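Predict the 3D structure for this chain.
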Amino acid sequence: MTKFLGLHETLDVHEILTFKNLSLTKSSTMSKLAQDEELKTILESDATLCSQHIHQLTKFLTNREEQA
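Done. Predicted structure below.
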């Protein structure tokens, strides 16, 4: 089975990737400004999760080899 995305799928993944990058930037910045420890923990865990999502989405756009 060949792993190719259609044009509309590629654009959708790119749009989600852009949103996740924005979320990562916002969470990272706000976690450094937050004074409440619980809020800081939530923002840091969100930044970690966004980073993982970005890595997974990037695989969809760059990994195009054939799979059986």
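The chain has a mean pLDDT of 88.
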